[in-house]
Amino acid sequence: MEIVKDSSLIQNEIERFVNKDVYIHLETTNGA
Asked: The pTM is what?
């Protein structure tokens, strides 16, 4: 069960990082 929990936590971290990266990319594109 802990492995599933860790995998879910990692997935959340990845999604958060990707969303932040996409947001920064959009901001940069709009500002250019």
From this structure: 0.47
